[in-house]
C-alpha cells in the first residue's frame, strides 16, 4: 500500500516490483546482500518502495525477513527509480567483488 505523501501509486509500485522480480532477481539479491545487511540471504524479491527507499523480502536461514535499503537521495519521480536501482546494483556488485553488468 502506498504510504501517505508518496508520489507513487500502488499500481506504479506493483509494476516496478513486478519488473524487478521478473527481470532482475539477481540484482535484488545482490542489493540485499551487499547494501541491506542481509549477507546470508539466499533469495530476495522487491516488496515495496517509497521516496526514502526500496524494500525487499529476503530469505535468510529459511525465514523471510524484511530488508529496506535507502536511496542515495529522495526519489519522487519514476525515472529516478531506475537510476537509483542501477546505482545500487553497480555498488552492490563492487561490494561483492563481482564484475559490473555489461548492460548498465
Characterization of the model:
With 104 residues, the protein is an alpha+beta fold. The protein has a single domain (10-94), classed as Split barrel-like (Alpha-Beta Barrel). Helices cover 41% and strands 23% of the residues. It has helices at residues 10-23, 25-35, 78-95; strands at 43-50, 53-60, 63-70. The protein has a 3-stranded antiparallel sheet with strand order 1-2-3. Strand 1 (43-50) and strand 2 form a beta hairpin. Helix 2 packs across helix 3 (78-95). The radius of gyration is 13 Å and the shape is globular. The chain starts with 9 loop residues before the first helix and ends in a 9-residue tail after the last helix. The model has no long low-confidence stretch (mean pLDDT 93).
Task: Give the arrangement of secondary structure elements.
Elements: H1 10-23, H2 25-35, E1 43-50, E2 53-60, E3 63-70, H3 78-95
Antiparallel strand pairs: 1-2, 2-3
Helix pairs in contact: 2-3
Amino acid at each position: 500500500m502506498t504510504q501517505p505523501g508518496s508520489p507513487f501509486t500502488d499500481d506504479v509500485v506493483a509494476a516496478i516490483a513486478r519488473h524487478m522480480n521478473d527481470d532482475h532477481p539477481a540484482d535484488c539479491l545482490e542489493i540485499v546482500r551487499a547494501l541491506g545487511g542481509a549477507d546470508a540471504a539466499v533469495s530476495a524479491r522487491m516488496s515495496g518502495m517509497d521516496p526514502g527507499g526500496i524494500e525487499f523480502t529476503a530469505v535468510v536461514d529459511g525465514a523471510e525477513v524484511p530488508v529496506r535499503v535507502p536511496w542515495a537521495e529522495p526519489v519522487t519521480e519514476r525515472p529516478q527509480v531506475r537510476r537509483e536501482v542501477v546505482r545500487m546494483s553497480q555498488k552492490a556488485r563492487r561490494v561483492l567483488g563481482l564484475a559490473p553488468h555489461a548492460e548498465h
